[in-house]
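Batch manifest line 429
LIGAND: coenzyme A
JOB: complex structure
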Amino acid sequence: MNELQSQGHAINRVSFFREAAPYIHSHRGKTFVVAFAGEVIASPKFPQIMQDLAIISSLGARLILVHGTRPQIDERLHNTNTPVQIHNGIRVTDLPTLLAAQEAIGFLRIRIENQLTHILNQPSISSHGLGIISGNFITARPMGIHDGVDYRFTGLIRRINHGLIQQQLDANHIVLLSPMGYSPTGEAYNLRYEHVAIVAAKALTADKLIFLSYQPLNMPRKLTLDEAQTYDHEFMLPALEALDDGVDRVHLIDAEMDGALLLEMYTRDGVGTMISEDKFEQLRSANVEDISSILNLIRPLENKGTLVKRSREHLEIEIHNFHVITRDDQVIACAALYNTDDDQVSELACFVVHPQYRGSQRGDKLLDHITQLAHQQGKTKLVALTTHTTDWFRERGFIKGSIEDLPPNKKSLYNYQRNSQVLFKQITE
Ligand SMILES: CC(C)(COP(=O)(O)OP(=O)(O)OC[C@H]1O[C@@H](n2cnc3c(N)ncnc32)[C@H](O)[C@@H]1OP(=O)(O)O)[C@@H](O)C(=O)NCCC(=O)NCCS
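JOB STATUS: finished
ARTIFACT:
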């Protein structure tokens, strides 16, 4: 590697770290349920996924892992020439199948616990005192007879002992849940791991439910509940079910991609698909009806000198440059995108989130939107002029520039009294 390449690598690492820093901070103490199929455990990528989960846990996130077992049960049934019985997509669990499920779960649990214990004891992570706990957290009942088919030991979840799980999370442990539940009468029931993950996410009011997929995703990075209904993917039904049950955000991530979990959690763009309900809030282009609400938002910052003053008339003329996040028709964030006389460069300006709504990455969402728009318009750079927010922008990939680097029209209008910092961001895919 020559000196220039190694400098390039160092800059990449620094910009990754800057980008990750706000997410590391905001994910600390948050609860994430991560569900993965038996196919993922069988993949050669699995040890790396365990390593990434250990890192996420050591950064302070509370993790509940839920594993599947289907291929491992099928393999055992195949080895003993026991037929696999599926009705309406649901396994019928007779006694030999229940035994195969118990064996498969025992085997997989020990494998996961072993791998994680090994990783959690590595010197870089062991100082956090993290452990892995699995146990009898789920009470189940039989699914019963449907269309004349008795599903025998296939079960449904009655309740999940979330208090006990919380205690484990409070003690810094990662909790591992298997798709098996127990009835008060001493029976064991085979469960769908996707359902265990949904019920756990709901009971623990998890901040995110993450499904690691072993099928390619080929979906946009962000989907609303309505948009998601139009996609066909193995995890789409469980994802919609989870959102319906009140889980805020579901992420689908390609398990085969190296580091996908870390990139999804700690970079702005992520690499998977995030599905959220977005009931009240909308990000859209502004129109004349928004002007009063935008003025209410920006006036206090204009008065403090953070933003340059804009008259109502000025805003009326420029309203097509504005983009807003609204909540119940009130503008709670705005940003403007202007062309400059350099056809490669757009200016980001008047960028505000209402103080009451800060701290939930709305600024990031708006910045992503503006960046995408500029990219669609064929621009390669964004420029922002700021007196108060330099670090916020730098943490998001903006780099300090000089007045000389400004497009000519911005240079001639530069206000030396304000002495704003000039910041550029390279726009990439
Ligand atoms: C910049 C802004 C839009 C971001 O809104 P947001 O997405 O809700 O993000 P937050 O305000 O919660 O800030 C996220 C993080 O950046 C930090 N941050 C906020 N403003 C900052 C600033 N001016 N300088 C450095 N860091 C800042 C916050 O402390 C927070 O860090 P934390 O998570 O460690 O506490 C919002 O803070 C804002 O409206 N600021 C005032 C207007 C402004 O300065 N606009 C830029 C002029 S172009």
